[in-house]
Design goal:
Shape of chain A: globular
Strand content of chain A: under 5%
Strand order of the largest sheet of chain A: 1-3-2
Radius of gyration of chain A: 23 Å
Structural class of chain A: mainly alpha
Oligomer: homodimer
Chain lengths: 504, 504
């Protein structure tokens, strides 16, 4: 039972949680329903909410209440609540109001500049805004960690406790395996015939089929919904209100299906948080790496398996009669291609991590002051040439492709690769404990895997950080071997190539 | 130009305006998109926002700032801003926080109780909650107007300055004409054949047709949107973000078309408020009566005219080929029926005001303490028998039909009748100034009327109250004669009956 002082603190926290919830709804609406001309007013409302939230989060009343609760004896959950709250409160209090406002205003301006720059394929339009954002974020890093490394302070915002020093060997190992792999694939002269995944797929039928899959995964539409947006995402508005979005291509069913499985994977994590923690500090995922592990696990390790398709194919035939002779075996290679590409969000399972490696190297150099914003386009292209063997021919397919920097989100990208690694680690561990899952998948039974994830990951909220949780669940630190083993299996089947030494 | 003290005040007011905007979005989403299980969290978020808004509205900092601005010389607009702000602030400061919270909690509970009671057709389930609501609202009235009449204090919330004493002669006149009219219609033995308006109307075609009409009226979908809900409404989320909703019947096109024209009429008012007043006290309609006049004018005086149908019919034929022989002349009687009915929202143009009269009498008796909540069902049925000549056989078609009391909105209903009166007054005045509009309608030209309304009404925000504005525009007080003249024209055509002495 929570102590009176803890209850008093949590009652104050609930207002902050509600302001976060309201902000999430405004952002969701901005992507799904906001009338074109309403953007100006929306920006102002969001900035008012940010200011109110910062005021509440940094108020002396809240801090006093936190200290009062900390001074009393609390149980493990209570201690976790206060630990997480202190982290969030301290971070907010370290940022002067002036800087918080400047960051918010800069992001709002930069989103526009970036859209314009990308549309006109002209990096120069974005350069000045990006420079200001980097400067402000270096100032933010100095506030958050006066004696520490600036880029580590950024990484810590998205995956608490993870540093560049942790990531360097990870990317070294991945590059050591994936760069030669790309060369081997090229040398094999095997080009996967992707026509089995192509054709004409009506939007409604794509949505209905993917919704059926998401329900089978366990994503609840009574506590969620699906809407169309330019870029798919998952957002939690509040307890039992976890929404996902999708987009589709009429000529290829993969982006919609795997997009929805990906977002539903995120959604399962959020829907699986302990409801009794709603509106408290612990009612959130532990970090973006762990979050991405959930989406990637369902998208890649479940959704691209032949066993999944053994179950799904009859329903796929019904949804798309044009494809009623397609077999899981014919489809398999289309789900496990490996080839260099310019655009991260369209990259395959294997090369995706090289896209992230490129961003990691570039962000580190930028925050170490080793490169200026003006030099980014060339550094970007050089890095792609080195890692993927291809050189972008313009900024839109190069340095301008991602929205993250325009939102001031530096240090966010590495969590994508952490997610890929952790997904494979968790999946291996799940099969160690539950046995091979393919027979269950063939029956459309995903609940053993989902319940295992719920118990091990979702139900923990942010009680433990990602690294501790991986260590506790898998008995090992975050590492690349399981991902490489998984890639090896599929690439051997499609290209006859075994992946790197680590997969031995 | 606004003075520095006014600007400082308005900057503080903007936060309050944004909190209102955010609240409106949460409520809109609750009707359109909220996942079923998300209602609990939504209720908490709304209550947090209400508390924050009350805190801001009653803060000494805001009040000091108001006084500082009032102490300086301001132009007419500035004075209007401060007058409106003082009204809103004083009202909020008169309500103790305890009462504000109790009212919000009572409404939230009562909405559930009422839904259950209506669903089970059992007034007893709602009686206790309603009693509490009446008690709390009488307490509220006593705070707002310690020496005044309780019901007048309620009326003043929705239509500033209007009192029961103003409304008594209005309803007397309407009842004096409409009660005998209903008898005459019954004696005429004419029953309108409504089959021209009935058949099979696909939902998409209904929406597309009504959207075409709304656009022609001038409602902007770049600053608005249309969604399906159980009950149609119009809500302003913020500047350039005015949303409307609709519902439809597959077997009758009238509810959807006239519902959308009605809401688009409200929407035109909100979209026509001066954008430069966004986030200030003046950026709102002047009262609910004036608001309703806008929706009713478009729905009834434009949309039910034969001239409107001369323009719309070819497009109606295209939308509904089944009806491709229907003429405006054949349709006309179906748009101007007159017959007693139990349900207000389904009532025709003429009898609608008797439904409102019933509620006015009952609310007055309730707030004067002349009747107890337990006696309401019988009083309701007696009043319907007296005014409409029919007696409800159960509570769902009687006292439980409206949501208003469950929301604590007492004194709201009379604004519906005021809206009907003002609609006819404005329309007569517009034709006095612009000439007969039917030729324009036949060409689908609604902009002369719309621009006139924009100039005379929409662009004024709440600078003047409804009564003053009607007096200024029409040179007369709010009165029933124009509405009765308009009813007389259509009812003479359909039933061969001239409406009352006042229509002479």
């Amino acid at each position: 039972m929570a102590s009176p002082s803890l209850n008093a603190f949590l009652a104050q926290w609930a207002t902050i949680a509600d302001l976060g919830s309201v902000t999430a709804l405004l952002q969701w609406d901005q992507e799904t329903g906001l009338p074109e001309k309403g953007n100006g007013a929306r920006g102002k409302a969001l900035s008012t909410l940010a200011a109110l939230r910062h005021e509440q989060m940094t108020s002396d009343a809240l801090f006093d209440s936190l200290q009062a609760a900390e001074a009393e004896d609390q149980d493990e959950i209570g201690k976790g609540q206060l630990r997480q709250a202190r982290r969030d409160i301290e971070q907010a209090r370290l940022i002067p109001k002036r800087l918080a406002t400047a960051l918010a205003e800069c992001d709002s301006r930069n989103l526009h500049l970036w859209q314009k720059a990308r549309g006109e394929n002209n990096f120069a339009l974005f350069a000045e805004g990006l420079e200001e954002s980097v400067a402000l974020n270096r100032e933010r890093a100095a506030c958050l960690s006066p004696d520490g490394d600036a880029y580590d302070a950024m990484l810590n915002l998205y995956e608490p406790g993870v540093t560049a020093a942790d990531l360097v060997p990870v990317f070294e190992e991945l590059e050591g395996v994936l760069i030669p792999l790309l060369r081997e694939v090229a040398d094999s002269n095997i080009v996967v015939d992707e026509s089995p995944a192509q054709g004409h797929f009506a939007a409604d039928a794509q949505r209905d089929f993917a919704v059926m899959v998401a329900k089978q995964m366990g994503y609840s539409f009574e506590a969620g919904r699906l809407d169309a947006t330019t870029h798919p995402f998952c957002t939690t508005i509040g307890a039992n209100d976890v929404r996902i979005t999708w987009r589709h291509q009429e000529d290829d069913f993969r982006p919609a299906l795997y997009g929805i499985m990906h977002e539903a994977g995120h959604g399962l994590y959020e829907q699986g948080l302990p409801q009794e923690w709603a509106r408290t500090p612990l009612f959130q995922a532990t970090g973006l790496g762990m979050h991405e592990s959930q989406s990637r696990l369902w998208e890649n390790l479940v959704g691209r398996s032949e066993a999944f398709w053994d179950w799904a194919m009859p329903q796929f035939h019904q949804a798309f009669p044009e494809k009623n002779e397609l077999t899981p075996r014919e489809l398999y290679p289309c789900l496990h291609t490996c080839r260099p590409s310019f655009i991260r969000v369209e990259a395959d399972e294997a090369t995706y991590n090289l896209h992230i490696a490129a961003r990691f190297h570039i962000e580190r150099a930028l925050f170490a002051g080793k490169v200026d914003v003006a030099e980014l386009p060339e550094l970007w292209d050089d890095t792609y040439e080195r890692l993927l063997g291809i050189r972008p021919t313009n900024a839109a397919e190069g340095v301008l492709q991602d929205i993250h920097w325009a939102m001031g989100a530096f240090g966010y990208f590495p969590t994508y690769t952490l997610g890929n690694l952790i997904a494979s680690q968790l999946y291996e561990q799940a099969e160690k404990e539950l046995g091979n899952q393919h027979e269950a998948f063939r029956q459309g039974e995903f609940s053993p895997l989902r319940d295992w994830l719920r118990a091990k990951v979702h139900s923990q909220g942010c009680l433990k950080d990602t690294r501790s949780l991986v260590q506790e669940i898998c008995g090992e630190s975050i590492q690349a071997a399981p991902l490489l083993r998984s890639l090896s299996k599929s690439l051997e089947r499609v290209y006859g190539i075994r992946v790197g030494a680590s997969s031995a």
